[in-house]
């Protein structure tokens, strides 16, 4: 058998068709590049918009938080401003009566401490004339020994307990003044702290 050679027939070259194919290929490349650039630009724009939204939300949150903190501080300061004078007036009204009632008990406690420190010592208690009968009655009721002397120079909330080896002084008015100063100092410190927080 013999082999036949077939003739190869090439289609004719159509310049319009080649131009159209080249343009289609360029359009496809341009479309791909445009899509990629548009996608990246869109992604960047979306990210920027998201970051702006986050910044706006964060700023609003921080502003609300700062307002709440300021409101809490203002409320705290208002309470302190109201309670300070109330506490001072309450203390000023109650402390003298408590001191008057507590002076004999305090004298007895100091006498007992002195007798423990120096058993058998002779004690001398000096107090204001108006307090002397109360102190004598207290010593008798507790069976404590000691000489009670009136001392006009002492105030009604003062007393002195003396023995051969020692001396003790009771000044409840001084204690009241110290406590009142501590209360005032506390509220002064709180006020200065508040001013520091306001001024930053």
Describe the structure.
With 200 residues, the protein is of the alpha+beta class. It has helices spanning 15-117, 132-142, 172-199; strands spanning 124-127, 147-150, 158-163, 166-171. α1 (15-117) packs across α2 (132-142) and α1 (15-117) packs antiparallel against α3 (172-199). It has a domain at 96-199: hypothetical protein PF0899 fold, CATH 3.30.2320. The chain contains three helices and four strands, in the order αβαβββα. The mean pLDDT is 81. It has a four-stranded mixed sheet. β3 (158-163) and β4 (166-171) form a beta hairpin. Helices cover 71% and strands 10% of the residues. It starts with 14 loop residues before the first helix and ends with a helix.
Give a short overview.
By secondary structure, the chain is α+β, with helices and mostly antiparallel strands.
Secondary structure layout plus pairing:
Blueprint: H1 15-117, E1 124-127, H2 132-142, E2 147-150, E3 158-163, E4 166-171, H3 172-199
Helix pairs in contact: 1-2, 1-3
């Amino acid at each position: 058998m013999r082999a036949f050679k077939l003739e190869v027939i090439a289609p004719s070259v159509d310049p319009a068709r080649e131009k159209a194919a080249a343009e289609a290929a360029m359009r496809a490349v341009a479309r791909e590049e445009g899509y990629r650039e548009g996608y990246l630009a869109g992604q960047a724009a979306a990210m920027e918009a998201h970051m702006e939204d986050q910044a706006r939300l964060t700023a609003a949150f921080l502003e609300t938080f700062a307002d709440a903190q300021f409101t809490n501080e203002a409320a705290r300061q208002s309470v302190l401003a109201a309670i300070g004078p109330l506490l001072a007036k309450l203390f000023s009204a109650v402390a003298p009566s408590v001191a008057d009632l507590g002076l004999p008990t305090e004298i007895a406690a100091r006498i007992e401490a002195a007798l423990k420190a120096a058993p058998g010592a002779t004690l001398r208690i000096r107090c204001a004339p108006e307090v002397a009968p109360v102190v004598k009655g207290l010593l008798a009721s507790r069976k404590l020994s000691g000489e009670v002397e009136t001392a006009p120079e002492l105030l009604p909330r003062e007393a002195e307990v003396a023995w051969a080896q020692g001396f003790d002084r009771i000044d409840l008015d001084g204690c009241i003044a110290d406590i009142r100063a501590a209360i005032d100092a506390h509220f002064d410190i709180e006020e200065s702290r508040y001013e520091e927080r306001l001024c930053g």
